[in-house]
Amino acid sequence: MHIAERIVRLGTETAFAVAARATAHKAGGHEVYPFHLGDLNIPTPANIMEAACAAMRAGKTGYCPSAGIPELRAVLAEDVGKSRNTPFAMENVAIQPGGKPVIGKFIMACMNPGEEVLYPNPGYPIYESQIEYHGGRAVPYRYTWDTSGFHIDLEYLESRITPRTRALILNDLQNPMGAECTREERERLAELALRHDLWVLLDEAYFEIRYSGKSVSLASIPGMAERSVILYTFSKKFAMTGWRLGAAIGPRNIIDVISKLNVNDESCSNHFVQYGALEGLTGDQSGPAGILATLRERRDTAVDFLNATPGVRCPRPEATFYLFPEVTELMARKGFDGDYAAFAEDVLVRTGVSLCTRLHFGRLQQGEDRRFVRLAYSGIGTKDIRKGLGALKAYAES
Questions:
Q1: C or N: which end of the chain has fewer Cβ atoms within 10 Å?
Q2: What span, in angstroms and rounded, lies between the C-alpha atoms of 299 and 376?
Q3: CA dihedral in degrees (306, 312, 313, 319; nearest 10)?
Q4: Pair (132, 258) in one structural domain
Q5: What is the pLDDT of residues 126-171, one digit of tens each?
Q6: How many other CB atoms are found less than 10 A from the CB of residue 340?
Q7: What is the pTM of this model?
Q8: Which residues contact 360 (CB under 8 A, 6 or more apart)?
Q9: How far apart are the first and last CA of the chain?
Q10: In which domain, by residue range, is 358 found?
């Protein structure tokens, strides 16, 4: 009895390994400050929960259309169309059991084995995993860094395009770095996609998790809505991570394929949960506003503590709930120059701060000489942020 060969190409979400180590440390009687996993410890708004319960009581507990209930698809098409300035209709939406399934289904729909897909590194590790699992070649592009934050290395990205390149994955408002594209970056990416006839996956999971300004989608640039699939999730804006509900939104031809994959994979997304999401989009918006206010307070507290910590530099991102501070000097002073695993373990044991490192978001690329870690503040309250990062500051000062 043999396991299929393709399984060796399947990666994982490495932050869960950090979570397991943090859980073991806590089980030993130690205080742990969980900055490692991008979950939310904020309740789902009450009106959403009540709408889902009402749908259950009304009998919405059976199968529903594989593409999602029409009411949710229509409202989501209108909502996303307005925010992205795109002419979406219900037929452009396929509801999914979370945002993550959109990644694999996009790749299955547009990439043949042996073809190449560009993806961000550092970046969400499931991109590389799904490309390679389905027989493609995962081609990373990279970012540059300055005191204002992170920027796509556009010259390097263009140099990696070949006749085998089929698609580009863009995580604007990015995990793990909290970075967002400038207008010039979006325009250049659009020009490259059009010139090389690329499909584009727009992972916009954090599109509405921002603290100032306004999010802009690559799909709003002329010619891009016709070749882009937007990954939408209800997890972030509505604190619905465990509800597992999202959507693929894009051109009818690829959305029809994704809906067919729905039939083969899960039949349909949870029926009654979709009525909760519908209430989230159309009902009282004080819940999402409160979630955003809570996250803003946490961001400001965390950034202030990190920038007061010797050997640490942290930009203040205007979106997502992630921080990606540079810790090159701190690691060197503590004797961990380049040894991410030993540094993270030492920080956990000595301070209780559980964090991810640069290596949890892709292999190091040639020429990388600065060191970074990622902290998520979505699952830890302000009081514990102060305690945890206060311990980290003391660790740096000792």
A1: N
A2: 9
A3: -40
A4: yes
A5: 999 999 999 999 999 999 988 778 999 999 999 999 999 999 999 9
A6: 19
A7: 0.95
A8: 14, 15, 18, 125, 176, 374
A9: 55
A10: 5-43+287-397
